Amino acid sequence: MLNRHARGFFTSLFTPLARWLLKIGVSPDAVTMAGTAGVILGGLVLYPLGHLWWGSVVVAFFAFSDVVDGIMARLQGRSGGWGNFLDSTLDRLADGAIFAGLTIWFFTHGEDPAIGTAAVVCLVLGMVVSYARAKAESLGYQASVGIAERAERLASVLLITGLTGLGLPPVVLFGTLILLALASVVTIIQRMSTVHRQAMAEADGAAAG
């Protein structure tokens, strides 16, 4: 949902930057890799050190590379499978870094195993959400549905984690992660149901033919 509503705004905002990067010879792939490296820095270095606010700021800043590289590819007229594959693969690394960083902090010096456990659950379920769509599309089905797509998951966890670093009670982050996990479960069910309907319709059509 957030992806669809925000896409137009951020495309307009970052198009000048994308044009400038192309002009100086930067490739979309380079932006993708640099953005992932920045997210990993925030997630696996700053979060485990307890810098929840600055970690969230760094992750959020570099996460916008996902928008910029896509704009650059479109401006170049590149719509091949390699860019999509690279972007999707590195997105999984970035997501893993964010939730792993939270897990490390709260199981160690953060001293809140409940939040650490919730972060692990969100990490696993988030991977399944993404995998369900990727697998469906590889089989020729559509599964871009659900209440907890990647943009929603990242926006919520980054905002609340950052505010926790500024003094928000940790229980709010715990509650957010629990809600995020539940939303991910719902999204997985929605995607499975959507693919099931398509598969059954396909089977019925084949039988009728």
UniProtKB/TrEMBL annotation:
A CDP-1,2-diacyl-sn-glycerol binds at residues 29-32, 70, 74. It is found in: Cell membrane. Contains a di-nuclear catalytic Mg(2+) center. The active site is at 91 (proton acceptor). Pathway: Phospholipid metabolism; phosphatidylinositol phosphate biosynthesis; Lipid metabolism. Keywords: Cell membrane, Lipid biosynthesis, Lipid metabolism, Magnesium, Membrane, Metal-binding, Phospholipid biosynthesis, Phospholipid metabolism, Transferase, Transmembrane, Transmembrane helix. The keyword Magnesium applies. It is an enzyme of class 2 (transferase). Catalyzes the conjugation of the 1'-hydroxyl group of D-myo-inositol-3-phosphate (also named L-myo-inositol-1-phosphate) with a lipid tail of cytidine diphosphate diacylglycerol (CDP-DAG), forming phosphatidylinositol phosphate (PIP) and CMP. PIP is a precursor of phosphatidylinositol (PI) which is an essential lipid required for cell wall formation. Its main location: membrane. HAMAP family: PIP_synthase. This is Phosphatidylinositol phosphate synthase. Mg(2+) 2 binds at residues 66, 87, 91. Its cofactor is Mg(2+). GO terms for molecular function: CDP-diacylglycerol-glycerol-3-phosphate 3-phosphatidyltransferase activity. Mg(2+) 1 binds at residues 66, 69, 87. It is a multi-pass membrane protein. InterPro entries: CDP-OH_P_trans, CDP-OH_PTrfase_TM_dom, CDP_ALCOHOL_P_TRANSF_CS, PIP_synthase_PgsA1. The lineage of its organism: Bacteria, Bacillati, Actinomycetota, Actinomycetes, Micrococcales. Its EC number is 2.7.8.-. It comes from Arthrobacter bambusae. The keyword rRNA processing does not apply. Homodimer. It catalyses: 1,2-di-(9Z-octadecenoyl)-sn-glycero-3-cytidine-5'-diphosphate + 1D-myo-inositol 3-phosphate = 1,2-di-(9Z-octadecenoyl)-sn-glycero-3-phospho-(1D-myo-inositol-3-phosphate) + CMP + H(+); a CDP-1,2-diacyl-sn-glycerol + 1D-myo-inositol 3-phosphate = a 1,2-diacyl-sn-glycero-3-phospho-(1D-myo-inositol-3-phosphate) + CMP + H(+). Belongs to the CDP-alcohol phosphatidyltransferase class-I family.
